[in-house]
Amino acid sequence: MSVVPADAQDVFKTVCGGLNLGLKLLFDDCCRCSGGTAVPQVRLYARIRIAPGSGVVSSLLLAGPAPSDELDWEWVGKDTWTAQSMYFVKGQRVDPNAQYFHTPGNVAQDMAAGFHNYAIEVNQDNIKWYINDWLTRTLPKINGVPFPSNAGQARMGIWDGSQTSGWAGTVDWTKAPFITEVEWFKFTPYC
Length: 191
Description:
By secondary structure, the protein is mostly beta strands. 3% of the residues lie in helices and 46% in strands. The chain contains one helix and 14 strands, in the order βαβββββββββββββ. It has one helix at 8-13, and strands at residues 2-3, 21-25, 30-35, 42-49, 56-63, 70-76, 83-89, 92-93, 99-101, 116-122, 126-131, 134-140, 153-160, 178-189. Strands 1, 3, 5, 6, 7, 8, 9 and 13 form an eight-stranded mixed β-sheet that branches. Strand 6 (70-76) and strand 7 (83-89) form a beta hairpin. The radius of gyration is 16 Å and the shape is globular.
């Protein structure tokens, strides 16, 4: 497994000056970076160009300690026109289906052809997912319904989804490397 240095603040300081961070999938493994202090209310915001390719999964997420709550943006490289939002509570998927989104106004654009802004915002009463500042999904906190309230550490990565019951496709390693590019990254705690 290839892991970029763990502290996201230090990692992304090196991105200044017009340089992008590239997360590279080379073999049957993953590449990820994580960091920042876990906080209960936060906005995770990044400008990303996803990696194309069957079986290749790019991700931007907030997670907590195991068994983790998790809030995801994921992009499956065999469908670069769609972003997926999902969430987990204590490691269990609450919503059985991912929700699928295009870019603002629900206009399809190839998300691997250029950079787009993605955000996950966690507030006390709801969680919101954004593409290019367009609100795509709101998860309200409802009494009695499991709610991910312990997902406050930033993570992003690229991984081989070949072993996921076929939903991601199979990676063609002759086309490696696969690269997810990050132009910038912001982690803003709401204290």
